[in-house]
Amino acid sequence: MSKILDEVLAANQAYVAGFGNKGSLALPPARQFAILTCMDARLDPAKYAGLSEGDTHVIRNAGGRASDDAIRSLVISYKLLGTREWFVIHHSDCGMQLFDNAIMSDLLSKSLETASIDASGWHDTGKGPGCDEGKYINWLTFKNLELSVVEDVQRIRRHALVPKNIPIYGFYYDVKTGKLVEVADAMQAGRAL
Amino acid sequence: MSKILDEVLAANQAYVAGFGNKGSLALPPARQFAILTCMDARLDPAKYAGLSEGDTHVIRNAGGRASDDAIRSLVISYKLLGTREWFVIHHSDCGMQLFDNAIMSDLLSKSLETASIDASGWHDTGKGPGCDEGKYINWLTFKNLELSVVEDVQRIRRHALVPKNIPIYGFYYDVKTGKLVEVADAMQAGRAL
Question: Which PANTHER family is this protein grouped with (chains A, B) (predicted)?
Answer without folding.
Answer: CARBON DISULFIDE HYDROLASE (PTHR43175:SF3), CARBONIC ANHYDRASE (PTHR43175)
